[in-house]
Amino acid sequence: MTSGAHVIVGASLAGARAAQTLREEGFDGPVVLIGQESERPYERPPLSKGYLLGKDPREKIYVHPQEWYAEHGIDLRLGTAVVSIAPAEHQVTLADGIRFDYAKLLLATGSQPRRLTVPGADLEGVCYLRRVEDSDRLREAFRPAAAVAIIGGGWIGLETAAAARTAGAEVTVLEAAELPLLGPLGRECAQVFADLHREHGVDLRCGARVEAITGAAGRADGVRLADGTRIEADVIVVGVGITPDTALARAAGLAVDNGIVTDASLCTSEADIHAAGDVANAYHPLLERHLRVEHWANALNQPQTAAKAMLGQNAEFDRLPYFFTDQYDLGMEYTGYVDPAGHDRVVFRGDPATREFIAFWLAGNRVLAGMNVNIWDVTDPIQALVRSGTPIDPHKLADPDVPLETLLTA
């Protein structure tokens, strides 16, 4: 057993950023960072983007150099799992039986890919993309003329499809909805991504329902759909969403509801336990609702708030949700939050058909979110429009000759 420390469960981007912030804010006590993976903390976006494409070297994915942890007095424990938390005793227990007393605890346990449950889903050759070894495996599999079937047309599915096509593979994307990304983007913007992939040679099949994975000798060789169609495949990638890893929190009696429930300072229902990243369903003071965001920016920025709150500072996380994607020659940034039924129109500045535009989601002429496609350096004014809550003239919003920066002063 060790003496009280600031313990972080989850040696991820969020965990590493929390440890960094604790030191930057002057905390000189013990910091223990515990992770199940053998790799030191790394960022996940490159796994479906630059690293998967072979553009970024492996070293670029890591949050800090190896020596940073020792230099900053971080007790980094990799390849080990926390098996229980005892809030009353302020103690965590590792799989090897070691126990840590904690003064403050941060849960940055992240999420896990949602598993396919159809017959054959456990065959060799059915892949998920969450860890660096998953990306390594797909880089090896994505070769010219290889047949790749991707189940799920979300962000991971489409980025993976782009990487596979760029490598010369033959790609089929199977999406259950009418269009990929229909839920988060709506029909007009979702159509942009559907057209993009079809133009790059992807066989995009919408309204597809997977019935089984077929195979022989223990290895997958195709996907059978409910209509009887069979898609031959050398490799099958499943991207049907993720689920927050709340098992530890739930077993410890913390409030859990679509993630670990926290207040705006990222404190859980236990005063000395905080949560950050994919796993945190945090109250957002600007949006006035609890929100769990499964994107890189939250894992990057939430830990700063959590670490400051762990040190007794007044800190609230009120950054707007932000995410980005790169697919072929399309780059996109999205800022804000839109409930699927919470907007009444989408205003375009530019023509979506050109793939150079900004889309704004509005409710009562208030901008809820903005998505810029192949247009850059507009994130700050989009954030300002969203944060202001001020009604904006939609005609001026759509006019590319009216600078975004002037809309709040007009």
Description:
- The protein is an alpha/beta fold and 410 residues long.
- It has 3 domains: 2-112 and 243-310, FAD/NAD(P)-binding domain (3-Layer(bba) Sandwich); 115-238, FAD/NAD(P)-binding domain, CATH 3.50.50.60; 329-406, Enolase-like, domain 1 (2-Layer Sandwich).
- 23% of the residues lie in helices and 30% in strands.
- Strands 1, 2, 3, 4, 5, 6 and 18 form a 7-stranded mixed beta sheet that branches. A 5-stranded parallel beta sheet has the order 8-15-9-10-11, with helices on one face. A 5-stranded antiparallel beta sheet has the order 21-22-25-24-23.
- Strand 5 and strand 6 form a beta hairpin.
- Helix 1 (13-24) runs parallel beside helix 9 (296-310).
List the helices and strands and how they pair.
Layout: E1 2-9, H1 13-24, E2 31-34, H2 45-48, H3 66-71, E3 74-77, E4 82-86, E5 91-94, E6 99-107, E7 111-113, E8 126-127, H4 132-141, E9 147-151, H5 155-166, E10 170-175, H6 182-185, H7 187-199, E11 203-206, E12 210-216, E13 219-225, E14 230-232, E15 235-238, E16 242-244, H8 247-251, E17 260-262, E18 273-275, E19 280-284, E20 289-291, H9 296-310, E21 322-327, E22 330-336, E23 345-349, E24 357-363, E25 366-373, H10 379-388, H11 394-398
Parallel strand pairs: 1-2, 1-6, 2-3, 6-18, 8-15, 9-10, 9-15, 10-11, 17-19
Antiparallel strand pairs: 4-5, 5-6, 7-16, 12-13, 13-14, 19-20, 21-22, 22-25, 23-24, 24-25
